[in-house]
Amino acid sequence: MNKYASQWQSPDMTKRLARRYAAERRFRLLGVAAIAISLSFLAFLLFTMLKNGLGGIDWAFLTGSDSTDAGNAGIWGAFKGSLLTMAVTLVLSFPLGVLSAIWLEEFAPRARWVEWIEVSINNLAAVPSIIFGLLGLAIFIQLFGMPRSSPLVGGMTLALMTMPVIVIAARNAVQAVPPSIRDAALAVGASPVQATFHHVLPLALPGILTGTIIGMARALGETAPLLIIGMRMFAATPPQGITDSSTVLPMQVFLWSGEIDRAFVQNTSAAIIALLFFLLAMNGLAIYLRAKFETRW
Amino acid sequence: MSPAIVLALLLALGGAAWFAARGRAQAMYTGRGSLRAMPNYHGWHMALWVLVPALLGWGVWNAIAPGLIHGAIMAHPAAQGLPAMDMERDAIVNEAIAAAKSGGFGAFRPESAALTGPVKEILARFDWIGAGLSLVLALAGGAFGYTRVTRDFPARTRVERAVLGLLLAASSVAIITTLGIIGSLVFEAFRFFTFVSPFDFLFGTNWNPDPFAPINPEIGKKLGAVPLFWGTLFIGAIIAMIVAVPLGLMSAIYLTQYASARFRKWVKPMLEILAGVPTVVYGYFAALTVAPLVRDFAAGIGVANPTTESALAAGLVMGVMIIPFVSSMADDSIAAVPQAMRDGSLAMGATKSETIRKVLIPAALPGIVAGVMLAISRAIGETMIVYMAAGAAARLSANPFDSMTTVTYQIARLLTGDGDFAHPSTLSAFALGLVLFGVTLVLNIVALRVVKRFREAYE
Fold first, then answer.
1. What Å distances lie between residue A136 and A147, B190, B413, CA to CA?
2. End-to-end Cα, chain B, rounded Å
3. Conformational region of residue A295, where left means phi above 0, alpha means psi within -120 to 50, and beta covers everything else
4. N or C: which end of chain B has fewer CB within 10 A?
């Protein structure tokens, strides 16, 4: 007879179980460590920027333009360039994105060429941003002769980049509207276009707006394509219109980061704080919108 | 007239047309069923007739006007004294046009300064012609639209047809963009390959572009892109993935399998902030903080002459940037594994970690691999981090402490330099762009296929 009540209590088994539970704890610890490492990197980044830059933020910095003297340089010129660029991007990409999402979800026939449109939208969303810069340079500037370094060209380039993001978000939002809404509208005599624009679109709008804000936040932080189309320039005065030469906020960060004068470290970090502040505010707004208007059907 | 005024005028006309047609239709309304379409739709129909032909005509005019303006300037008596040489003459004329548009500034040559006055008149005349043309089209379209307001005119169907056309046009922008990217890359890359053979470019190991070098057959010897491809792969596909895959995978596993709902709700958005930080910020952080740390570490372990710019610094930071991406892809593919498989394993007495390692991860592997491929495609297309932290030296080295350069870095540098756009060194940026576009496209297509197959397997 075995002297133990069951095999589970034999010393071998106890050891074995202890080993397995130890492995379980180690694995769990690895997961915690992975998250801790990632988040501490983020904390380290934010801390460095705050430490270097917080002292540089004052009224003169927020209202000034670029200058060769670190003490006089400010971000208003670059920020205004960003605003103009974002305005062009929004005006182009929002209607284009929403309309093509509606067409793809509600009206597109099942056909080969429609599949091509879908494939190209999905691929555009994954094309490296610098490629859009090459497109902007070759088509908008070289072929159409549009003004180099201008918010117009920058905005158009970023609009092409942002549009697929909006299309994908808008398609998901339109898909989430239950078919009964459409059926009800059609049943009382609305045409398909009326059912879509009067009933489906308003219900999908919060989701579309959330996606749009996220896409715009991405465009606001984008640097590489604008580098290619020449928005890397010293602008001592804010741009007056969308065809003026100008720079944008992330580009200002890039330009200052290349300055040899150590005094620009503070400016760079301060500009980064301003940039991150706007991005966080936009993302916060998106999260708020999603929470407030999210409907579970 | 400035474009803004023309646009505003056309929009105002469109609005007026809307009210006019709607009013006329309303006047015809005598009771239920007396009109085939609601008055609003009559309004829209006429507004479309005002706006669409006018905007089309105006667009066409603006497309052909520069050529006509050029011809008119040439025919002007003030242009008779210009040099016969085409290039010089065009430069003078362009300068005069730019000066006329900006109110007299920018005419540096005396010839173009003398031309500025006449050019201004010509420009103004052509602007007036364009504006007049579009107004005439608007009025003609409006008149036609107004006659269509009758009792049995199906205005709604017509308007809806136009709306569907608009939707289709918006959708086709995506495909036009794709074609535009491919077209411009292929066209400029083709120009490049008329100077340099594709073989030299794809397999040469010496990269030393000089936008001022004389153009001769020897130039291909300095434009071999293998060191760039290697640098890109080493930083984006090797170093960054060594950082991002374990960290991303483990955090996804912890968040989905172990963490409480509360913890997940707070930590997941915080992790996603990592993906939302602009790349230029990462680049600055890599150059300012991470790179010196890496250099000191290299000096500490006895690497001779460590440089501040290193592949390791850029790759590390890029890896951190990719973590949320890998994490959410892994999250999705683990969630797609059927619950029954996990339940079965747990029921057999396996611990949670054993279930994850032996059941969930093998089952989710195709999805995870696809996610890693997408992450690689994102990493090799990343520009700012490598631009600010990896360096410009094109070298074939497996030492992560060396400075290295990438495809995206070279594209950005070649196109922001002072060189002539038509020089092979500058054009090589488009050939590099074509390679980058092709590689990321293939990675994406394959990865999406794998994900799709994988989803189908469990459905």
1. 11, 18, 16
2. 62
3. beta
4. C
Report the number of distinct structural domains present in chain B.
2
Tell me: do B308 and B415 sit in the same domain.
yes
CATH number of the domain bearing residue B358: 1.10.3720.10
- Summarised one tens digit per residue, pLDDT across range B212-246 is 777 777 777 888 889 999 999 999 999 999 999 99
Whether the ipTM is more than 0.85: the answer is yes
- Work out the pLDDT band at B107, boundaries 50, 70, 90: low
Tell me whether A142 touches chain B (CB under 8 Å).
yes
| Rounded CA separation A22/A109 (Å) | 58
A42 CB-side CA count, 13 A? 22
Percent of chain A with pLDDT over 90: 57
Q: With an 8 Å Cβ cutoff, is B397 touching chain A?
A: no
pLDDT band at A106 (very low <50, low <70, confident <90, very high): very high
Secondary structure string (H, E, C) spanning A169-221 = HHHHHHHHCCHHHHHHHHHCCCCHHHHHHHHHHHHHHHHHHHHHHHHHHHHHC
Over residues A240-266, the pLDDT tens digits come to: 888 888 899 999 999 998 887 777 888
Structure tokens at B165: 């056309």
Measured distance between the N- and C-terminal CA atoms of chain A, rounded to whole angstroms: 64
Q: Are residues B145 and B234 in the same domain?
A: no
Sort residue A108 into left (φ over 0), alpha (ψ -120 to 50) or beta.
beta
Chain B CB contacts of A132 under 8 Å are 181
Residue with tokens 């994900």: B451
Distance CA A229, CA B327 (A): 33
Contact B10, B136 (CB under 8 A): no
CB-closest option in A100, A123, A287 to B173:
A100
Q: Is B188 inside a domain boundary?
A: no
The residue-averaged pLDDT of B85-109 equals: 72
Does A61-293 carry CATH code 1.10.3720.10? yes
Instruction: Tell me which chain B residue has its CA closest to the CA of residue A121.
Output: B174
Specify the amino acid at residue A241: G
Is the residue at B348 inside a domain?
A: yes
Quick check: A83 contacting B, CB < 8 Å?
Answer: no
User: Residue B417's domain spans which residues?
Assistant: 218-457
